[in-house]
Amino acid sequence: MADTLEFNEIYQEVKGSMNDGRLRLSRQGVIFKNSKTGKVDNIQASELAEGVWRRVALGHGLKLLTKNGHVYKYDGFRESEFDKLSDFFKAHYRLELAEKDLCVKGWNWGTVRFGGQLLSFDIGEQPVFEIPLSNVSQCTTGKNEVTLEFHQNDDAEVSLMEVRFYVPPTQEDGVDPVEAFAQNVLSKADVIQATGDAICIFRELQCLTPRGRYDIRIYPTFLHLHGKTFDYKIPYTTVLRLFLLPHKDQRQMFFVISLDPPIKQGQTRYHFLILLFSKDEDISLTLNMNEEEVEKRFEGRLTKNMSGSLYEMVSRVMKALVNRKITVPGNFQGHSGAQCITCSYKASSGLLYPLERGFIYVHKPPVHIRFDEISFVNFARGTTTTRSFDFEIETKQGTQYTFSSIEREEYGKLFDFVNAKKLNIKNRGLKEGMKQSYDEYADSDEDQHDAYLERMKEEGKIREENANDSSDGSGEETDESFNPGEEDDDVAEEFDSNASASSSSGDGDSDRDEKKPAKKAKIVKDRKPRKKQLESKKGKDPNAPKRPMSAYMLWLNANREKIKSDHPGISITDLSKKAGELWKAMSKEKKEEWDRKAEDARRDYEKAMKEYSVGSKSESSKTDRSKKKKKKQEKQMKGKVEKKGAASKSLSSAKSPAKNMSESFKSKEFVSSDESSSGESKKE
């Protein structure tokens, strides 16, 4: 039998909400890790008292009871997993996994049993429902009634807020069943009552979230924030983590308390309590306990009289009461030597702290991201200026965080940190554009091979080569076809009749008529060279050597059919992804073999290009000579035509000098209808 059992997509019931995570059973005990908060519940095998298997809403569930009265519920198991779990419990925990189904009769009267931190309403021997008493926020009594009120669950759409029990009177003297019921509930309920004196009080502390000045009263089981407007009571059981972070100015300190569930004010939820301290502020603290009680409760972690910096005293007291470690920045140092990076998140500017196991941003809004919930990070070009860049984080749940306006001097330090923590780095489409500003960005995809990105790179190189080849080969053609002098002559001839007709009128309409053909001529001018350029790009020399493929593309071409046969019906996209995974998993020796093939192909290509360029140069020189010869012939023919035209013009003008001199010119507007035809016929 296996020493461990692991289950994914298991749900733990905590304060009325179902939190998903991973459950692991081993010889040592049971471990559950919450996917949302990262909180780990560890139950030692020696503490387990009972295990119950039963049918629940989410399939089947496992209820574990410990010897000290705690109850843990895990749902989401399949029915077929019972035998495996039962055998594991017998072999490693020496417990019989009992099957107990809930009663579904629908009766509303029965017996209430209190066991540890659980209230069970039973009918006969079968439970109808169970209430963890830690969910109870208030308990009130009536004549024959007990009312239980529950903590509100923010994650659920519908929350159970109240349950009332009718307790019938008994004949026993001196025992009030209603009061006995209420006392059993209150002894285990999570009811915060400020009874007795506080252990210590910190006056007028500056709080950034929620904003204001607060007195902090430290009680044995909860923390009381007392402000001018609001009061908050925070049980220590809701504290997840503690952070102590130095400000960039080296004069202040942040103390951050992570809470789950958060404290509430109306519709606002505060998941983090952030206090700001000055390093210069000192305090002398005396605990409201005698020395024996301090020693017995805190075991040397605190003393009755303490003195030092205010932030040290607060963090020390909180660590002792909450019994959690304080997280501080690790080895990261930015460009300026600080342990944080100045950036903006959403609309506010703040500080991003790279920690040993995550990132935390303070202060508005505060964000904590663990490494184990990060899918990938991305270095992106700044949207407004090249002096900065953006740092994007996407979680496995699909949530994206963008920290913008980071100075580009911080890039090297941050990239090295992310690389050292082995986080996936993935630049999505911005890599080529950012190459000029940040050369280091070219290496950001080395850790994780992306088949799609490789393909895009190859296609981009081919397009770039095509553009360069076509512009080099068609330069003379486009220059020759786009001759400004010749274009102007063609336009003048095309609109010559319109120009002569409008020249004599001299009104505003003639100017408009002259401008219109000029616009048409401009359109013709712009389109001609573009057509030629497109034709020249299309007509790339088919005899030119093809660019060599990369090592990955050579390997993909050789193994494409094998991948298809191993995965019948695979799509092109999935094939590319699968090929990327196989290439990434390939050993270094095998990759070197394909690198050598790619290097040989590159050498062959360079050799072929040299031979091709020598041949193309001799051909281009021949075509240049033939073009020059043609131009010379065209010029000679044009000169002869111009001479003939000039000679014929002089002859016609010599034949009719008298006629032109004797008659005055009349335009058509000034010739009357009766003399126009008769006069002309007489002269003829």
TrEMBL record:
Transmembrane segments: none annotated. Residues 474-496 have a biased composition (Acidic residues). The keyword Zinc-finger does not apply. Residues 545-613 bind DNA. InterPro entries: HMG_box_dom, HMG_box_dom_sf, PH-like_dom_sf, RTT106/SPT16-like_middle_dom, RTT106/SSRP1_HistChap/FACT, SSRP1-like_PH1, SSRP1/POB3, SSRP1/POB3_N. Residues 532-544, 634-645 have a biased composition (Basic and acidic residues). One of its GO terms (molecular function) is DNA binding. Keywords: Chromosome, DNA damage, DNA repair, DNA replication, DNA-binding, Nucleus, Transcription, Transcription regulation. It comes from the Eukaryota. GO terms for cellular component: FACT complex; nucleolus. Residues 517-531 have a biased composition (Basic residues). Residues 497-507, 647-664, 673-684 have a biased composition (Low complexity). SUPFAM superfamilies: HMG-box (SSF47095), PH domain-like (SSF50729). Component of the FACT complex, a general chromatin factor that acts to reorganize nucleosomes. The FACT complex is involved in multiple processes that require DNA as a template such as mRNA elongation, DNA replication and DNA repair. During transcription elongation the FACT complex acts as a histone chaperone that both destabilizes and restores nucleosomal structure. This is FACT complex subunit SSRP1. It comes from Eudyptes filholi (Southern rockhopper penguin). The lineage of its organism: Eukaryota, Metazoa, Chordata, Craniata, Vertebrata. The gene is SSRP1.
